[in-house]
Design a protein that fits this description.
single chain, alpha/beta, Dihydrodipicolinate Reductase, domain 2, nine-stranded mixed sheet, 9 helices, about 35% helix
């Protein structure tokens, strides 16, 4: 078992504490939070040791799980890596791309493992269709949330849209060519609703919308590729897969046949991939244990987190200008 310690005891930090305590892959040593009152309260609630010194906790573990505000990610991770500890860092990986690059270099020099908490990679609906997404050429993503004061200190791009940015970058094997975006502040001092258009070198275009002032919650992405349409509902954990193949010479009575302008006939059929229920946060934490113990590449290495952050920051830069590249 890997000895683990958590930095941060907020809403998400408490979820990590509970899951690490339950996981057979980790021995949860304790946690640190700069707010001693909150720390002692959480310690009593969960029955988990509270450390009032971050360095002491880092020294006592093998893995440091960083679930602190983004501004402190770099300092926390740097201390942990320099102490010889593996690091799991919640998204966004750091406040700036330069900070992420420095952490990547530290990991390279030390040979330690680092993973970023882009949890939607482990969503069972996405997992069910990931192998079916080949070369998408148009992607549409909507991530809408009802207003919640928590998280409004950062633009909605870093709060919500970054999930979809990471998913898109993980399936599009091409460099970003152009970014156009717009954002509007409605309640917060930073944008609450945003739209971005990302164009890739291979011709793929992704259109993303994120809002934290919606009347309903939605987390849905649609992938269009040659002979296939794939829809992923990250919220309700459902998928739709519509595929096409050459129509048979003699179609069946119930076959759905389309004919294009050139006279080519295609048969439409539906696939129903099995969606295996899971806890995505637990899965990402336990996959990180695998990466450490078996010396594997983490599912979401710091490089992937840095790339998602880079695109997110360029979207924010593009607000009001039309493009950022």
């Amino acid at each position: 078992m890997l000895k683990a310690g958590v930095l941060g005891a907020g809403h998400l930090g408490k979820i990590h504490l509970r899951l690490l305590r339950e996981s057979p892959r980790y021995d949860l040593v304790g946690f640190y939070d700069p707010d001693s009152i909150q720390g002692k309260k959480v310690s009593e609630e969960f029955g988990i040791p509270y450390f009032d010194n971050m360095n002491a906790l880092i020294a006592a573990v093998d893995v440091v799980d960083i679930v602190t505000p983004t501004l402190s990610h770099f300092d926390c991770a740097k201390k942990a890596i320099e102490a010889g500890r593996h690091v799991f860092i919640e998204k966004p990986v750091t406040h700036t791309f330069e900070e992420a690059a420095l952490l990547m270099e530290l990991l390279r020099k030390t040979g330690l493992k680092g993973q970023v908490g882009h949890v939607e990679r482990f969503n069972p609906a996405f997992q069910a269709v990931r192998g079916l997404i080949g070369t998408p050429m148009f992607i549409e993503a909507h991530r809408l949330a009802e207003f919640n004061p928590r998280g409004t200190d950062v633009p909605v791009v870093l709060d919500l849209m970054i999930h979809d940015i990471d998913i898109i970058l993980s399936v599009v094997d091409s460099e970003v060519r152009d970014i156009q975006a717009s954002g509007v502040s409605v309640i917060s001092s930073s944008p609450d609703i945003a739209n971005a258009r990302i164009a890739f070198e291979n011709g793929c275009v992704a259109n993303l919308t994120a809002s934290r002032i919606s009347l309903k919650n939605m987390r849905k992405s649609r992938f269009f590729q040659r002979d296939a349409y794939i829809s992923v509902d990250f919220l309700d954990r459902k998928v739709e897969v519509v595929r096409m193949k050459d129509a048979p010479a003699t179609p069946g009575e119930f076959d759905m046949i389309l004919q294009n302008a050139e006279g080519e006939q295609k048969q439409i059929y539906f696939e129903n991939p099995e969606i295996k229920a899971n806890n995505p946060i637990l899965d990402e934490l336990e996959q990180f244990a695998d990466a450490i113990e078996k010396d594997l590449e983490p599912a979401v290495p710091l490089g992937a987190g840095a790339r998602a952050l880079d695109v997110a920051l360029k979207i924010i830069e593009a607000f009001g200008r039309g493009n950022s590249l």
